[in-house]
Amino acid sequence: MKKYFVLLTVATALLLAACASSTEGGAVGASRPQLLLVSSAELEQMAVQSYNKLKADAAAKGVLNTDAAMLTRLRAVAARIQPQTAVFRADAPRWQWEVNLITSEQINAFCMPGGKIMFYTGLVRRLNLSDDEIAVVMGHEIAHALREHSREQVSQAVAAQTAIGIGTQLLGLGGGTSQLTGAAYEALVATRFSRSHENESDRIGLELMARAGYNPQAGVTLWQKMTSAGSAGGGGFLSSHPSDSSRVAQIQALLPTVMPLYQAARR
Prior knowledge:
There is one protein chain. It contains 11 helices and 5 strands; from the N terminus they run αββααβββαααααααα. By secondary structure, the protein is mainly alpha-helical. The strands form 2 sheets. Strands 3-5-4 form a 3-stranded mixed β-sheet, sandwiched between helices. A hairpin with a 3-residue loop joins strand 4 and strand 5 (116-120). The termini are far apart.
């Protein structure tokens, strides 16, 4: 019985110790306790490996960075947003940021932990995105990395595996091998974030792009385009970032908060 009590006590202590917020709140107030059981360094190392493999595969297929003009646009937008990340995380401007482009009809984009950004040409071309609308997507994806949503998802998987492990020991069934590597990969590459994660990223992303001097009203037009593309079966980004009227309404509600930031940046 003492052994079981110790196991439960250790597990509870780990969970309590891991509850922290990965970012400051900014003007939009995006800060809350998070379950962060795995280290940032471990996840960032996995992100680098996954990102490099993605680049190598794309290069082998001849679809990496083939549109120089579009790549220049994307990197210019990223360069203006990256310094603004300090509002939420002091360490983020020093990340090893990287922006690349895959030629594909997919409407897709993401930012892995540590600032590894990938856009797909289909997102920009099929939706005919302006630089302001690109900044909405860029800010949103960077926000996922700033808030460490992937790390949070992997930590939830760790917590579940820990609970299972304790349960099997309590029942005398022996330990099992966790599939945490697989869970981490899913969180890095093929994530479907929760609605709360999406809401946080909308809020933070809108502030980031406004502080960088991009018009946050583009958030409304972007998600209207996303809605139209989704009804036509857009897939990719749209399947993991569903667009609806409530999303547009939240962005409209945030405009009084972020428009002054944009106007100050433009002065």
